[in-house]
Amino acid sequence: MKKLAFLILALCSFNLTYSQEYNLKFKNVGELQKFMQWSPSRYPLISYHRGGPTAGFPENAIETFANSTKRSPAIIEFDVALSKDSSLVIMHDDRLDRTSNGSGPIGEKTLSELKELRLKDNDGRITDFKIPTLDEVLKWGLNKVIFTVDIKRGVPYKKIIEAVRRQKAEAYSIIITYNVKQAEEVHKLAPDLMISASIRSAEDLERLNQAGVPNNRLVAFVGISAPEKSIYDYLHSKGIWCILGTMGNLDRSAQAKGDELYQKLLHDGADILSTDRGKNCATEILKYIEQNGLKNKQLSLKK
Fold first, then answer.
1. Fewest CB within a 10 Å sphere: which of 143, 184, 271, 278?
2. Are 196 and 176 in contact (CB under 8 A)?
3. In this structure, what DSSP letter does residue 50 have?
């Protein structure tokens, strides 16, 4: 009987844990900008790479994004592509074969044709979930998450920013760029928006500043291997958060040697961990937050 009671308690605890949602709410873009200015009391976050896919939940699906909010406060990274009729849809690959029950280049399908398809999870199982549009995703994210919007396959930044404006999503959208020219373009098109830029040295930041991109609009992607502490210290001295990509070698290292690695990466200076192991990373980042007594006034728990 004691064993049965323990099992029931454990199951109830599991359901309670995953019935809640961690929601992030920003009243306006100024509040997001203030939140993203680094301080020693910063509240670290997970960036769920491609939304945090797991068994039954495919990458780049709204249902997957929602599932990730049950694990921790979430930054949702997703990818934008163009359909044949120039609709903005959420898809990483150039082709449909790996992630859906369709085939061929996504750019050869109209939006209506894409909406007939179903997404596959990473094990290749077909789900009931559909390919979302950028507008659908931005609308869903209000008062729930921060987005980092990855733009591929020649999608114009202008179209992305128009969608952000249309959905009034400035307060929870960060635009990913890969070089100074892209960051300069985004800042000229939308001076109020936050930008994720690749910054791995003081020289990288100086080039961005010379192009007119100010520090208080930047989040620094420092790479997929941990940088020297001096890089973290330099960027933090400028008020800039640092995103470390753990997808790949660091995720594999955590899986092999212990998930405590995620806490060490935060302790060493990372502020956001972009991971493919959302569940495991979330467990460790929540421990780190509790152990360090960190607070987030933008966070609410919905049960």
1. 143
2. yes
3. G
Q: Which of 144, 223, 122, 232 is nearest to 178 (CA)?
A: 223
3-class DSSP assignment, residue 196: strand
Q: Write down all domains in the chain, each with its CATH number in brackets.
A: 25-92+134-294 (3.20.20.190)
Cβ-count burial 104-141 (b if 16+ within 10 Å, e if not):
eebeebeeeebeebebbbbeeeebebbbbbbbbbbbbb
- The structure tokens 């969608």 sit at 163
Paired tokens of 156: 């114009």
In contact, 91 and 115? CB cutoff 8 Å: no
Note the pLDDT tens digit of each residue in 231-270.
999 999 999 999 999 999 999 999 999 999 999 999 999 9
Gap between the terminal Cα atoms of the chain: 30
Share of the chain above pLDDT 90, in %: 92
If one compares 170 and 18, the residue with the highest pLDDT of the two is 170
Q: Rounded to an integer, what distance in angstroms lies between the CA atom of residue 75 and that of residue 173? A: 10
- pLDDT tens per residue, range 38-79: 999 999 999 999 999 999 999 999 999 999 999 999 999 999
Per-residue model confidence as pLDDT tens digits over 97-110: 999 999 999 999 99
C-alpha 46/C-alpha 103 separation (Å) is 32
Distance separating alpha carbons of residues 72 and 22, to the nearest angstrom: 6
Candidates 138, 124, 161; CA nearest to 62 is 138
| pTM across the whole model | 0.93
Helices (H), the chain: 2-19, 29-35, 62-68, 111-114, 134-141, 157-166, 180-189, 202-210, 229-237, 249-257, 260-268, 278-291
Packed helices 278-291 and 249-257: angle between N→C axes, nearest 10 degrees? 70
